């Protein structure tokens, strides 16, 4: 290009553009000059197109005015990597902002860490994060800005509040998961698999709160944690605080301990060798422990737990708590009104070793040790046939209404006998609660909006002194209404999540085999097995039942 020269300085850091106007044949194009610089290898450094254009415009002006003055300007420079830092508002994270170099150098990890220290990022720096950011920078185009996290603070962990530790297991827990304890803290009588305590036995201890762990932010400041708090002990029936230890709960009566909802209670226990025509029916305000069988047509009613260390045949057992039958329960279905001669009804959970011809109703979960056949079940929780950790039991020829997963080893029978599992009742109950709550929420939301509009009008007017008290009262009512609305909005979200969780938990799992004749239902959505399956899971997803094999 005649009349135009490009040159590096001695250190090859800067590019100079020299133009002799008297040697030009025509006006210069800034783009043509830029292209010529790139062709000759000067684009290894940063080239300023605005500087090139300004230099060309000046030379073109001299060319038109016949001015022979030479034009010389710096239009390029070698730029090293630019390093900046940013700290979040809460001082818990630090970021590095790197600009890719134009022919310049990229700092190493140690240099970036030293610069971060100078920028008050003193703790939580991660060498691996910085190294990964520099590797990303080495592949970036010149001039590109890359931002990445390089430091993280450690939030303080507040101390855990005091916790209550039962010193003796619940009867149901002991049956499902037998445990051996070496601590001789409870004076008990081992009645089969059931624990009873004597008066003044230690049943629960409150463990002290912890101090927590201090943290730090990226600036190096220490963040002090809060110590845990002492939570009060809630005493149930038959318990009291120990005279010599305020963190120890002891029984005041001999009976059966039960820990539920952070409350330890000891139920006054009626113990008998069996329930038959010789003993008569049993009705008791506490718990009932039967060290034998419950014979035909006998009735047990208790406000606490009922534990039978034996067999129940065609009997009626009602409990406000759990029902535990260590051997099994058996009855038969009468033709009249489809009633069962053996009935179990519990406010809590039910455990039986095996069941046949039994009507079972429980608000909690149902666990059967080995087999359940020809029964009618209504469970407020799940149904597990076998040990909870690995269910291998059998269930067939039953009508089951469950609000949780149904899990067994073998589901159905080779004969194809009908097994019906219905998840609808619990779902419909939850849906009805949600619909009622949504209608109420809609009404309160409308009222709150209308009241706020009225209050805005009042605030924009001059209120007479005689009405100021009433206005203040109205504002307080509006604040209360807004608080209530906020609570109801969060409750509505919880109900929606509960509905989704219910649908996710509605499933049938066969850990060994699933036979034909098994039907699963949720309202108008049905699934029925028409053949034998190996280990399988039937779950409710996207408003339909889905079968999938378990590998």
Automatic annotation (TrEMBL):
Domain named Flagellar Assembly Protein A N-terminal region: residues: 84-260
Taxonomy, superkingdom: Bacteria
Region entry Disordered, spans: 150-170
Keyword vocabulary terms for this entry: Coiled coil
Coiled coil residues, start to end: 427-461
Family matches, as PANTHER family: POLYMERASE-RELATED (PTHR38032), RNA-BINDING PROTEIN KHPB N-TERMINAL DOMAIN-CONTAINING PROTEIN (PTHR38032:SF1)
Keyword Coiled coil: yes
Any one Pfam family match given in the protein's UniProt record, by short name: FapA_N
Name the record gives this protein: Flagellar Assembly Protein A N-terminal region domain-containing protein
Highest classification ranks of the organism: Bacteria, Pseudomonadati, Pseudomonadota, Gammaproteobacteria, Alteromonadales
Organism annotation: Marisediminitalea aggregata
């Amino acid at each position: 290009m005649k009349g135009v020269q490009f040159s590096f300085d001695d250190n090859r850091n800067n590019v100079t553009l020299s133009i002799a106007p008297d040697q030009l044949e025509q006006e210069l194009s800034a783009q043509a000059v830029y292209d010529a610089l790139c062709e000759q290898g000067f684009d290894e450094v940063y080239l300023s197109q605005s500087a090139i254009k300004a230099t060309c415009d000046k030379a073109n002006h001299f060319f038109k005015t016949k001015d022979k003055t030479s034009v010389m300007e710096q239009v390029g420079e070698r730029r090293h990597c630019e390093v900046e830092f940013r700290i979040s508002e809460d001082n818990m994270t630090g970021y590095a902002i790197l600009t890719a170099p134009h022919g310049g150098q990229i700092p190493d990890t140690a240099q970036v860490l030293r610069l971060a220290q100078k920028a008050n990022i003193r703790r939580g720096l991660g060498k691996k994060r910085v190294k990964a950011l520099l590797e990303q920078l080495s592949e970036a185009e010149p001039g590109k800005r890359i931002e990445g996290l390089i430091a993280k603070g450690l939030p303080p962990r507040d101390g855990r509040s005091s916790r209550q530790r039962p010193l003796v297991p619940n009867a149901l827990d002991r049956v499902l998961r037998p445990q051996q304890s070496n601590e001789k803290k409870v004076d008990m009588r081992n009645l089969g698999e059931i624990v009873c305590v004597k008066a003044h036995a230690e049943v629960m201890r409150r463990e002290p709160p912890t101090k927590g762990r201090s943290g730090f932010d990226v600036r190096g400041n220490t963040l002090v944690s809060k110590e845990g708090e002492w939570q009060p002990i809630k005493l149930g029936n038959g318990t009291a605080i120990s005279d010599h230890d305020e963190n120890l709960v002891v029984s005041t009566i001999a009976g059966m301990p039960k820990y539920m909802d952070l409350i330890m209670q000891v139920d006054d226990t009626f113990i008998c060798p069996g329930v038959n025509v010789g003993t008569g029916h049993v009705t008791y305000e506490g718990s009932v422990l039967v060290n034998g069988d419950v014979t035909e047509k006998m009735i047990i009613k208790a406000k606490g737990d009922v534990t039978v260390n034996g067999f129940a045949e065609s009997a009626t057992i009602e409990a406000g708590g759990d029902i535990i039958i260590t051997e099994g329960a058996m009855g038969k279905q009468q033709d009249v009104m489809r009633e069962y001669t053996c009935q179990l009804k519990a406010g809590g959970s039910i455990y039986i070793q095996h069941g046949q011809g039994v009507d079972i109703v429980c608000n909690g979960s149902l666990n059967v040790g080995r087999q359940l056949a020809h029964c009618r079940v209504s469970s407020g929780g799940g149904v597990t046939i076998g040990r909870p950790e690995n269910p291998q039991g059998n269930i067939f020829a039953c009508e089951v209404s469950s609000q949780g997963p149904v899990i067994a080893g073998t589901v159905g029978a080779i004969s194809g006998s009908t097994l019906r599992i219905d998840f609808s009742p619990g779902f419909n109950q939850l849906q009805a609660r949600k619909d009622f709550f949504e209608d109420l929420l809609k009404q309160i939301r409308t009222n709150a909006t209308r009241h706020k509009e009225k209050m805005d009008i009042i605030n924009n007017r001059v209120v007479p002194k005689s009405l100021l008290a009433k206005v203040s009262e109205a504002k307080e009512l509006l604040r209360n209404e807004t608080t209530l609305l906020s609570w109801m909005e969060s409750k509505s979200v919880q109900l929606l999540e509960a509905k989704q969780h219910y649908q996710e938990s509605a499933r049938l799992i066969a850990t060994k085999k699933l036979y034909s004749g098994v039907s699963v239902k949720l309202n108008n959505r049905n699934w029925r097995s028409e053949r034998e399956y190996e280990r399988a899971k039937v779950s409710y997803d996207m408003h339909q039942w889905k079968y999938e094999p378990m590998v």
